[in-house]
Amino acid sequence: MTVMKADFLAEAEAAANEISALREAIHRRPELGNRERETAALVENTLRGYGIETYRPLDTAVVGVLRGGRPGAAVALRAELDALPVAEATGAAFASACPGVMHACGHDVHMAAALGAARLLSRRRAELAGTVRFFFQPDEEGRGGARRMIDAGCMGDTEAVFGCHVDPALPLGVVGIRYGKFYAASDCFSVTLRGRGAHGAQRDKGIDALAAAAELVTALLRLPEALRLERAVLTVGTLRAGTAENIIPGLAELSGMFRTLGTDNRETLREALRQTVEAVSAAHGTQAELELRPSYSGVVNTEAETALAQRAAEALLGPERVVLLREPLMTTEDFGCFVDAAAGSFYHIGAGCASPLHAPDFLPAPRAAVLAAALHAAVLWDYLNHTRE
Question: Domain limits of the chain?
């Protein structure tokens, strides 16, 4: 069978009105994590309209399965369903109709782009060599839905997963590619220090948990620099202790988060944090309880899949519209769970707006979803068909 090279950019431009209408409908009705029922229903109905079978691995998660007409591998594309608790201030005609909730992180664009790619590929299913799974994931902004989707069995025989994020730092029509470490891993921690309360005039009769906590905060904040870790960040966000000016606190509680790049740096900082808590607590005579809660694993793009995404972007838009992102980000993304489970690559596409992510006036240009749809389709097509063309 002869497979003709697809012109996904032209096909996406021809479907621009449909893709933009989907984006506007999604944007108008945002929903918070694990409550994305209306959004999931829209996604599911749209996929079925393209002749793509769907199922729900979780309450608000949707997986679409497009089976090609030729044998081949399985690849996936991921988009996020949830919005943020932000009051919109864009003034758009399709602004959020849900008070205090908006798609301030571009997930409306991501969904519309993934649905656009599903439309483009569904029209070429006879030529498609393999299977494409479309992962529409809940709760990326909260506790993370990626790991729960994987635990529910969404991966199957998927070999690689791709995805993207709109980026206000890139001009519209520009794609950002990053090899290797891209997004940081994150871990949350909380520490409880138990001492002995006493009268403030009799410090020798008490064990000052607040003094221990103060020293611990300073020691923890110094860890990333002391360990010479690659762009690690540690924040202590809360500290609670004491009930009155003249009482030595017998209890202090603090909590925070740290972000690291790569598995080795993550484990190094985890162990250093444990040792620091133990050492400071012992020096002050307090009893320490440390709770360490791993969060997102970060995104480390795999080499072959990232090279494929770069080639697809350059062929689609021209080499001058593709940039290599030199610096990893200290923000985090649970897309990394998919790359941990298989191979994959996460790339950026220019948002075409100046406002930063999570801002109440963040509003990517309509064409961002159209271009992302074309790019996704090209990447997935090339992954399945490039060795057969």
Answer: 8-182+298-385, 185-294
Identify which of 161, 111, 57 has the alpha carbon closest to the alpha carbon of residue 369.
111
DSSP string, 106-139: SHHHHHHHHHHHHHHHHTTGGG-EEEEEEEEES-
Can you give the pLDDT of all 389 residues of the chain as single tens digits?
A: 555 568 999 999 999 999 999 999 999 999 999 999 999 999 999 999 999 999 999 999 999 999 999 999 999 999 999 999 999 999 999 999 999 999 999 999 999 999 999 999 999 999 999 999 999 999 999 989 999 999 999 999 999 999 999 999 999 999 999 999 999 999 999 999 999 999 999 999 999 999 999 999 999 999 999 999 988 999 999 999 999 999 999 999 999 999 999 889 999 999 999 999 999 999 999 999 999 999 898 999 999 999 999 999 999 999 999 999 999 999 999 999 999 999 999 999 999 999 999 999 999 999 999 999 999 999 999 999 985 44
Q: Which CATH class is domain 185-294?
A: alpha beta
Q: How many residues does the chain have?
A: 389
CATH 3.30.300.30 fits 8-182+298-385, yes or no: no
